[in-house]
């Protein structure tokens, strides 16, 4: 599995947490600088970030990939759209959370979220809602 890290560097402990949650080893962590220039258009900057990963079209569609999103919400939104276009599906993401009362502040891996599963569940809810609406007619 490959972790594309658009956030802070991962510690060895965080990498072990990812492996435990994913049930497979992390073969590679690719760190991508996600800093953007707010004076320039965002989309080309995010496309450039993704290009720096260096994957071929086949790798985007076949490699097991987890994403650690950048903290800037606009960058994260555009990044997910760009990744969906290259991968053909929404990726799974790693959610971090602060360790309570840790000094200095530390983060741990909270969960891995399959965005594709979230999308499919939302589509099912939409379908159920549409069916209920047509039954009321």
Kindly summarize this structure in a few lines.
The chain is α/β, with parallel strands linked by helices. Helix content is 46%, strand content 20%.
Name its key features.
single chain, 137 residues, alpha/beta, 46% helix
Describe the structure.
The protein is α/β, with parallel strands linked by helices and 137 residues long. The protein is 46% helix and 20% strand. The protein is built from five helices and five strands; from the N terminus they run βαβααβαββα. The chain has helices at residues 12-22, 42-51, 57-62, 73-87, 115-135; strands spanning 2-5, 28-31, 65-68, 92-98, 107-114. A five-stranded mixed β-sheet has the order 2-1-3-4-5. A hairpin with an 8-residue loop joins strand 4 and strand 5 (107-114).
Low-confidence stretches: none
Number of helices: 5
Shape: globular
- Compute the separation of the termini in Å: 49 Å
β-sheet strand percentage:
15-25%
Cα-atom Rg, whole angstroms?
Answer: 17 Å
What is the ordering of alpha helices and beta strands?
Answer: EHEHHEHEEH
Helix content: 40-55%
Give the biggest beta sheet: 5 strands, mixed
Structural class: alpha/beta
The tally of strands reads 5
Mean pLDDT: 94
Main-sheet strand order equals 2-1-3-4-5
